[in-house]
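Aggregate trends can hide what the representation actually does to any particular protein. In the encoding step, the backbone of a single protein was reduced to a row of integers, each denoting a local shape. The record that follows shows the chain in one-letter code together with its fold in token form.

***
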Amino acid sequence: MRNAFADEITTLADQDPRIVLLSGDIGNRLFNDFKERHPTRFYNVGVAEADMIGMAAGLALGGMRPVTYTIASFAVYRAYEQIRVDLCYPNLPVVIVGVGAGLGYAANGPTHHSCEDLAVLRALPNMTVLAPADAWELRSLLAQSLLRSGPSYLRIGKKGEPLVHASRPSLEIGRGFLMRPGDDIAILCTGILMPQALETARRLESQGISVAVFSLHTVKPLDEALLTQLFQ
């Protein structure tokens, strides 16, 4: 997913001179194309996540569209106060990208685990929380996030996640996406567990159970209309 992010943010920056990318001292080679094409719009802030959010807030107040990028646990937990006070309360258009979400960096120990990020960010006012299932969903949701008037969190995998879409899907923030139809059971999946959800549906199908699978890529705001329909 991180390669898809680097490619997509570079393309979007070609189209919008307001886009600025801030990195928390990771992915420097990953963003070589971005730096070559937009050298004045890339900042390696270093291991200073709280400062990175403060800088992004200032850039947003100045009319730019900042995107921050670092390991998910650092992006959220180390800078939670700044996200709350500097971004969410004033409702500033900053996109926070957390890479290696969940246990993507499991071998690095608990400092790198981000298992509560969805929960704590959902609690903040004005924050949109997104968890794409694959690189195609990431591309679509990133582009949409940069058009929103408030802060967004984009929770992505590390690398090697399988594609579950053949091409870019027609996603809409706040609305679930039907991956496969079914009549007996509905599986609602968020993020990179989608391959397991689809495999589960296939196994149940072989037992005569018709299973629908939905990608709930938007954790906040939830698709309440879809949930109401499914629970009736």
About this structure: Residues 177-231 form a domain with the Rossmann fold fold (CATH 3.40.50.920).
